[in-house]
């Protein structure tokens, strides 16, 4: 089924029925991107995963219960997609490979091309996890007339760098990037991200306009885990034992700043979760998206109205 056919099929459904479609969408320049959409209704929710997270990342949970993708499909139209270099299990991304590393700006350009060529109906509520959170913020700043609500799921932000000294940030960057040697041997086109370039792009983007915004922040500290990870060989031996505590402190400051981006934004700090809130506590993410969608439908500029 073509992307256009997918959209037409969705428009023929009743408000809460599921019109599922998945397709490789031609976005021009000889490239295709994988897109999957379900449900019907407005606004359209687009789920944007973290680094190396494919569309299926939003359809996984670590406990019995609904996944974010399937639950939101019962509420409104919802779409997920593969960025280039995001593995699907043991297989490569379904989207055409591109040179790596990429910035958030590159990802924004790709997402805009994808929704344009696939004719995904707006307006959009964007939900982004980790690096995906940076992407959706930059998208909202770049295309302010297209985005009417945001949900940030333990989002990566330039505030993480701002809250650390240059020396601390060097260590942080190393921890975030990890050792990609073996991964690159297996999958040379795997996604790698340029965090610093992405942060500069974010800093140069216009302020977020007023819209419903919910920030979900992980509350399980990383600090106590680092010494054990070093001992187990999961982190380099030269990693400072207090690196996790420094990250936790900086992340708390950065997440609080995210909640100041829009008037009346809601900040959920008691999540009983690590970084992957959408898998560990999917109902929190489902509820946040539902609250933002409801606010948009009521014409409100804040989650609770």
Task: Write down the CATH class.
Answer: Alpha Beta
State the shape: globular
- Determine the mean pLDDT: 92
Q: What's the gyration radius in Å?
A: 19 Å
Strand order of the largest sheet: 1-2-4-3-5-6-7-8
CATH fold group = Rossmann fold
Strand elements, count: 8
Our count of helices gives 12
The fraction of residues assigned to DSSP E strands is 5-15%
Give unreliable regions as ranges.
1-18
How many domains, in number, for the residues? 1
How would you portray this structure in words?
The structure is a single chain. The protein has 305 residues and is an alpha/beta fold. The chain has one domain: Alpha/Beta hydrolase fold, catalytic domain (Rossmann fold, 3-Layer(aba) Sandwich), CATH 3.40.50.1820. 38% of the residues lie in helices and 15% in strands. It is built from 12 helices and 8 strands. It has helices at residues 3-11, 68-73, 104-117, 131-142, 158-162, 166-177, 181-186, 195-203, 226-231, 243-258, 277-280, 282-297; strands at residues 21-28, 31-38, 44-48, 78-81, 124-129, 147-153, 213-216, 266-268. The protein has an 8-stranded mixed beta sheet, sandwiched between helices. Helix 3 crosses helix 4 and helix 4 packs parallel to helix 8. It is globular, with a radius of gyration of 19 Å.
